[in-house]
């Protein structure tokens, strides 16, 4: 076995249920489906395929959940980063109806895995979109009406007074409660999914970075010390894929977002901050998100760095926003701070597709990928089984390359985000 690879210095790594490392691939093997990347996209695909009877092999360059799936805010947010009204306007009602019918399914996939495979990941119900100004509150009223049109009923508007029953902060003028949103320990979910796959006979190799994918009737996926010959390949490396598949690299840019975790809070303080233990994200373009952990810490995330640069001092960057939201925490000690990368697309819609006939990919959830990545896994498995209707709803969406090439696409995107952030700050 190769030398152990650390997960990250995150709170999640410190509280992971399983710290054992799996062996690396050594030698040449064959399988039905080879999956590159052991995050939510890769493992949701793998579990669905294994349940359908496929032999599945997952190659993970680092550790299970090393990418965004083991570092994120742990918030189940429904629909897509661009909502269904955008789809209606730009791609027509048929596409909107099809995508709308899947917009709330990712959360069901997660809950299904947790129940079926007994995954211990502190899953709690209820997510809030908190409005920082009246314009955002109006947008949330629109979101509620939109989602209800697509059959999602578990929603409730919160007034300026009403939101105080959920969030102990003066920052918000109201919000939208999604009762079927929720939160969980993401690394423990992804580790539980890995164990579920193995219980179904699937194989996972860690420390097995794919360095080449050779197309063909049987594809060959090559690592430093071995190869996998497969009928199908799924590329699920998302923001950590680098330049393995150049056509995918051009379609999206990795962005960093940072998270910190406080020391455990007293029960009284937990009740004061988040009386009903829901998760919260605000409605800004560069948004803040927070929730309590299973052991009563505040997990607070926000901020974006374009091009996946590691910021030097995460705590100094995030702490001012945390204190702005909860001034009562001005002296709180921060125990953990870390960064992770998500993948942004130009349209802020996920990118699903095929390369040749037997290499599938799903990437670019643009910030909200916890639920969408689980949906992606399900529809890719359906497509490989021969039922591609739902997968192809996504493949028909345009996937333009980011303008500016390698040199300019990151500064250009940062400028765009600066503009949207300014709009939020000025409240228009
Ligand atoms: C800090 C942070 C907070 C977030 N919070 C939320 C949230 O609260 N709610 C929400 O909806 N979304 C959130 N997101 C987004 C969400 O986490 C991601 O969209 C989702 O986890 C993506 O899953 P994935 O499996 O596609 O990618 P990843 O989880 O990034 O997995 C990709 C895996 O592929 C592996 N890999 C890459 N290249 C290779 C290779 N060549 N060979 C082998 N393996 C390879 C990587 O090591 C990695 O493990 C957040 C993201 C971040 C970074």
How large, in whole angstroms, is the Cα Rg?
21 Å
The CA-CA distance between the termini, in Å, is 56 Å
Helix-strand sequence: HEHEEHHHEHEEHEEEEHEHEEEHEEEHHH
How many alpha or pi helices? 13
What percent strand? 25-35%
Helix content: 25-40%
Bound molecules: flavin-adenine dinucleotide
Spans of 5+ residues with little confidence (pLDDT < 50)?
Answer: none
Query: How many beta-strand runs?
Result: 17
Characterize the main sheet: 9 strands, mixed
Given helix and strand content, the structural type is alpha/beta
Q: If you average the pLDDT, what whole number results?
A: 93
* General shape: globular
Task: Outline the structure in words.
With 428 residues, this protein is α/β, with parallel strands linked by helices. 34% of the residues lie in helices and 26% in strands. The chain is built from 13 helices and 17 strands. Strands 3, 4, 5, 6, 11, 12, 13, 14 and 15 form a nine-stranded mixed sheet that branches. Strands 1, 2, 7, 8, 9, 10, 16 and 17 form an eight-stranded mixed sheet that branches. Strand 1, helix 2 and strand 2 form a beta-alpha-beta unit. Helix 3 runs antiparallel to helix 4 and helix 5 crosses helix 11. It is globular. 50% of the residues are buried. The site of flavin-adenine dinucleotide has 43 residues, from helix 2, strand 11, strand 15 and helix 11.
């Amino acid at each position: 076995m190769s030398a152990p690879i650390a997960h990250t210095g995150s709170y999640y790594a410190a509280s992971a249920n399983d710290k054992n490392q799996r062996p690396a691939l050594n030698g040449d093997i064959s399988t039905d489906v080879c999956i590159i990347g052991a995050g939510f996209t890769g493992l949701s695909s793998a579990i669905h395929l294994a349940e359908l009877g496929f032999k599945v092999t997952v190659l993970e360059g680092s550790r299970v959940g090393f990418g965004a799936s083991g570092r994120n805010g742990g918030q189940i947010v429904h629909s897509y980063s661009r909502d269904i009204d955008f789809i209606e306007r730009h791609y027509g009602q048929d596409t909107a109806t099809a995508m709308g019918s899947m917009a709330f399914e990712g959360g069901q996939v997660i809950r299904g895995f947790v129940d079926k495979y007994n995954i211990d990941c502190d899953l709690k119900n209820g997510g809030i979109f908190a409005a920082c100004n009246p314009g955002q509150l109006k947008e949330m009223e629109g979101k509620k009406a939109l989602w209800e049109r697509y059959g999602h009923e578990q929603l409730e508007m919160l007034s300026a007074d009403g939101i105080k029953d959920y969030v102990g902060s003066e920052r918000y003028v109201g919000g939208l409660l999604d009762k079927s949103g929720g939160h969980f320990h993401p690394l423990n979910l992804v580790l539980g999914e890995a164990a579920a796959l193995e219980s179904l006979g699937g194989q996972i190799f860690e420390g097995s970075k794919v360095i080449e994918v050779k197309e063909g009737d049987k594809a060959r996926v090559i690592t430093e010390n071995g190869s996998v010959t497969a009928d199908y390949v799924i590329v699920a490396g998302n923001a950590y894929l680098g330049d393995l598949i150049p056509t995918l690299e051009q379609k999206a840019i990795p962005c960093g977002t940072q998270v910190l975790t406080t020391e455990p809070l007293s029960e009284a303080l937990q009740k004061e901050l988040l009386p009903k233990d829901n998760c919260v994200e605000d409605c800004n373009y560069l948004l803040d998100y927070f929730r309590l952990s299973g052991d009563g810490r505040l997990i607070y995330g926000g901020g974006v760095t374009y091009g996946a640069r590691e910021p030097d001092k995460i705590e100094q960057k995030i702490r001012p926003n945390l204190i702005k939201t909860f001034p009562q925490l001005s002296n709180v000690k921060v125990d953990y701070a870390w960064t992770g990368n998500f993948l942004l697309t130009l349209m802020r819609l996920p990118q699903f597709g095929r390369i040749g006939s037997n290499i599938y990919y799903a990437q670019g959830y643009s910030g909200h990928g916890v639920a969408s990545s689980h949906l992606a896994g399900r529809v890719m498995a359906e497509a490989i089984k021969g039922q591609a209707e739902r997968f192809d709803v996504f493949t028909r969406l345009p996937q333009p390359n980011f303008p500016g090439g390698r040199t300019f696409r990151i500064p250009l995107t940062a400028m765009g985000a600066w503009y949207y952030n300014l709009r939020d700050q000025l409240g228009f």
